[in-house]
Automatic annotation (TrEMBL):
It comes from Afifella marina DSM 2698. The keyword Cytoplasm does not apply. PANTHER family: HALOACID DEHALOGENASE-LIKE HYDROLASE. This is Putative hydrolase of the HAD superfamily. Gene3D superfamilies: 1.10.150.450, HAD superfamily/HAD-like (3.40.50.1000). Pfam families: Hydrolase. Keywords: Hydrolase. One of its GO terms (molecular function) is hydrolase activity. InterPro entries: HAD-like_sf, HAD-SF_hydro_IA, HAD_sf, Pyr-5-nucltdase. It comes from the Bacteria. Signal peptide: none annotated.
Length: 247
């Protein structure tokens, strides 16, 4: 990936953030969005998925990794591929892969305070399980700030970025997309929300904000029209939204 000059993704201003003035529903992905990627929490999940695949199919780690990533690319999640091709038990899979150590995940008081100040409804929308989201949000100190968690089971096991999954979420909570904002760490998961009329924010690892436009192009998208804002500091960005709204 070739780095771009900082001006290629210009810093936003408070005036730019006026697009959030009408937002009434704030939708946050969980993994690598509500907590920093360098917490390596998802690395643990990734490793346990690979172990599950290896044990299930009786293959070595290298082959398990290949199958895991192939399923992810073809089906959106490794679970979806395992369901379609190996009829796995969903509950046992979710329980196994989310049985991780969250003790090193630092509480996020600044993010909690910023989200608490957002006017309107707030949700976690994840391809993981509700139990994983609840435990992770509790560790972060965020559990009291969300109306509900929409997990892979609520999505009828159809993961983001499937359009029907976003529509199921919207219908369940009676959300007007034009009055909603979505925060994600995966660019492809913002394509449908943008098409539906939501404001979109891509959350990237600290210090990488200036290079991510190249990644969008590498994913085969026509530039980054589906991403309204990019931030490598979610707490600061949400605080700026609150300030811009005068809340």
């Amino acid at each position: 990936m070739n780095a771009l000059a900082a001006e290629d993704i210009a810093p936003h201003s408070l005036e730019d953030l006026s697009v959030f003035a009408a937002v009434e529903a704030w939708i946050f992905d969980l993994d690598n969005t509500l907590y920093p990627r360098d917490s390596n929490l998802f690395v643990q999940i990734d490793e346990r998925i690979r172990r599950y695949v290896g044990d299930l199919l009786n293959v070595d780690e290298t082959e398990a990794h290949r199958i895991q990533k192939e399923f992810y690319e073809r089906h959106g999640t490794s679970l979806r591929g395992l369901m379609l091709e190996h009829d796995v038990d969903v509950d046992s899979f979710l329980e196994f892969v989310h049985d991780i150590d969250r003790s090193a995940l630092a509480p996020a008081p600044e993010l909690a305070a910023a989200i608490a100040r957002l006017p309107g409804r707030k949700f976690i929308f994840t391809n993981g399980s509700r139990a994983h989201a609840e435990q992770t949000a509790t560790q972060l100190g965020l559990s009291d700030h969300f109306e509900d968690i929409f997990d892979i089971v609520a999505a009828d096991l159809l993961p983001k970025p499937r359009e029907e999954t976003y529509r199921r979420f919207i219908e369940r909570y009676d959300i007007a997309p034009s009055k909603a904002a979505m925060f994600e760490d995966l660019s492809r998961n913002l394509l449908v929300p943008k098409d539906l009329g939501m404001r979109t924010v891509l959350v990237v690892p600290s210090g990488t904000r200036e290079v991510f436009h190249a990644e969008w192009e590498m994913e085969g998208h026509d530039g980054a029209e589906h991403v309204d804002f990019v931030t490598d500091n979610l707490a600061a960005f949400v605080s700026e939204i609150v300030t811009a709204r005068g809340a």
